[in-house]
Amino acid sequence: MAVQLYNTLTRQKEVFHPLEEGKVKMYVCGPTVYNYIHIGNARSAVVFDMVRRYLIYRGYDVKYVTNFTDVDDKIIDAAKEAGEDVFALAEKFIEKFHEDTSALGVKRADLHPRVTETMPDIIAFIEGLIAKGYAYESAGDVYFKTRSFPDYGKLSGQSTDDLQAGARIEVGERKQDPLDFALWKQAKADEVSWESPWSQGRPGWHIECSAMVKKYLGETIDIHAGGQDLTFPHHENEVAQSEALTEEQMASYWLHNGYLQIDNEKMSKSLGNFVLVNDLIREYDPEKIRFFMLQSHYRQPLNFNAELVEAAGAGLSRIRTFLENVRHRYRTSADFADGEAWLQKIESFKGRFMNEMDDDFHSGNAITVLFDFVKEGNLYLQGPHTSREVLREIMNTFQEWGEVLGVTFFVEEDLLPADIEDYIEQRGKAREHRNFQEADRIRDLLKEEGIELEDTPQGTRWKRVSKS
RNA sequence: GGCGGCAUAGCCAAGUGGUAAGGCAGGGGACUGCAAAUCCUCUACGCCCCGGUUCAAAUCCGGGUGCCGCCUCCA
């Protein structure tokens, strides 16, 4: 089976065929850096990071680019309000973006271009559109002539006539048509601006992505992704600009992730329910949050609240506990060599995992495969004989899956301090003498220090837990 | 008004014609000195409602109802 993905452009699931065999060019719309990212931004970053990781797992050489919108009205407003320099503010939130997303297991993109670093390319792009008659200057602004692009609306499924009916017509607009959108905007006197053939100004929002895609990935790319809300107008406008200029298809596949809601309500400033990742990761293990997000399909709407994250976290713990038990068994048991049947079973689980992921990156179903594995694996561990080869292969397999999902399944072990080891030994002796009062006293003592003891047929083992 | 999505157990969530996965929570049992971990078992006579097609429908068709998103530089 091959990778299949749902393409917004065609509104159906398609088999993935990259432009160039074995290589994937992928662009994801990044944030406007005027604040800490919220949990909705994070979902987008997390799910497309997962897509990227899976394509790499499938053997593709992926070039992954995601931008920062580092100049924009909102940034200017935020800087004004904070009394800070516009560029310093953007820089700060770019750093915070990296901090927050990396806590959530998101790998850095191959390139993180910024608007402010792409200005010559943006200006050249606009000049090209004017030269071809797709854009016009109007009192220092430049607008894209939407109706001059016949395919306008093909991505979002809107016709220009439908849009016309709902279009908001602003008073005093410099546009020739309400559907036209800005490529370049003249700056106000005190605003940050760049020199251009038309005015001191700055680019419109949509043009940056078109220019960056072209500059860093080429005229046609394989996958263009972003949040569902970007489909229109942002991506629709990108398509219009890019395809008008290059006369080539901009992207083969368009992926859009579903919206995240807070307690079944839209996240909005007016409701005051914005959840910032930076706050969240102080309260929760960030991996719980990532695991929670990946348990549902990326295109589905996702409700977010504390109970749901905790429930997902409990599931994650089940997997981690299983692997701790596997590791313990690996270290403490004699080898029972005949593991052929189980090695085959592992292969079949790997196949199931891949089938689920091939189906439009259905990480939720892929995780179900992990739980099925854990169930059978636990039964294996209960048996009297285990093969070291099988145990090692189980650990390798979860290591691999963890890499694809971006979740750490193996808990870091630190060295057991010698005095704690002594306590465990003392307790063992007490138990031998059936002095359970003393044994429990030691166990409780260690528990207070965050060390939990478990007695198994292979001896007493310990693990770190949060201090009670 | 236009475009799109979703309705399955207490909660999350699979399942696109063949007789309801998985996770969390909860009940019962086994194992254990007691725990922990684990296993077994129970919890949807029914998949928003009403019709229809079919030997057979959560799944297909028709008609409703409810919720949500976009059409406002919000991922």
UniProtKB/TrEMBL annotation:
CC cofactor: Zn(2+)
Domain of life of the organism encoding this protein: Bacteria
Residue sites binding ATP per the record: 269
Matching SUPFAM superfamilies: Anticodon-binding domain of a subclass of class I aminoacyl-tRNA synthetases, Nucleotidylyl transferase
EC number: 6.1.1.16
Keyword Ubl conjugation: no
Motif ('HIGH' region): 31-41
Any Gene Ontology CC annotation: cytosol
Motif 'KMSKS' region per UniProt: ranges: 266-270
SMART domains: DALR_2
Modified residues (Phosphoserine): 270
Family: Belongs to the class-I aminoacyl-tRNA synthetase family.
Subunit structure: Monomer.
Name of the featured protein: Cysteine--tRNA ligase
Species this protein is from: Natribacillus halophilus
